[in-house]
Design a protein that fits this description.
With 337 residues, the protein is α/β, with parallel strands linked by helices. The relative contact order is 0.14. Helix 6 runs antiparallel to helix 7. It is built from seven helices and 14 strands. The chain starts with 9 loop residues before the first strand and ends with a helix. The chain has a five-stranded parallel β-sheet. The protein has a five-stranded antiparallel β-sheet with strand order 9-8-5-10-11, with helices on one face.
Length: 337
Amino acid sequence: MFANFGSGIRLRTGSNPFFSIFKSPQNPPPVIINLSQNLTLAMATLSAPDNRRPTCPSCSRPTSFCLCTRLKTPVLENSIAVTVVQHSLEKKHPLNSAKIATLGLKNVDVICVSDVLSEAHFDLHLFESNPEMRSHDSVENGKKIEPADISFTIEKKGVVTSLVNNWNQIQDFDQLLVDQSAIDGVRNGLTVKKMQRGSDHKYVEEFVIDVPPGSLLLFPSESSIGIEDVNFKVKNLIVLDGTWSKATKMYKENPWLKLLPHLKLDIDKLSLYGEVRRQPKAECLSSIESIVYALKAIGGEDLEGLDCLLDVFESMVVDQRRCKDERLKFESNIKSM
């Protein structure tokens, strides 16, 4: 990991030009550098753009740690589609495990979402809605706009401030969650559009997602059920990708997720993530582990192909652990100088 560490570290102090701390200039200014500063500057130099290692364009990992060559080909053609709802901060995280799913599964989509800054608006179009229950269509820029079956606006932390429901007469979001006609309508499939209000108070579209019939959300909540209680054919698995706190926030700030049936996994396995990334609970799993175990529980998939994805994830953890050990050894050597 530290093979590219050069023999000199360059600093700038005030208006003075760059100089090397290992080779003094003719008239060096009085500078005092302690070991802590020395180590920090060394790490900063390693992470600077000019010192970045070449990365694989597919998996975004350093070429020496490329994941693509570890995956079996052709990719696993999963019969149950996977939709990853990914937090925007997780997308470029070096230890993001959902990347393995996108590389190793054929039927997978990733929807990137961000935190609600001030206000967000959602339009839900049900696949099998009753046109007679809607209000009249509107016209915008000479184009006919079909009204959403359910529209609502939220503030931070997912607080619903307004609800327009053309599906039935319910005007309270919590009541909508237990209304059987709305539940049945959502389970027949829907399209969700999210618009985020910016600092200029204008709404900007963040994503549009089709949620097909037979969708199941993998998330532990009070309404979650075990796989043995799922009474419909699962065609699409929705997984939240982010730290546990970020996943919980995404769940609260995307209330449409609450309208879907929830699945919880009864697994006593410890995540490999615990070795390299902090987990809030021992039973918390990475995104790729959650996807694999859920697909196995639902059934009908290539078990060997799914195990291969876990093997790739384990190899990624081994890489990270080795780099961590090398870094600790490097820091120890620097401090002992």
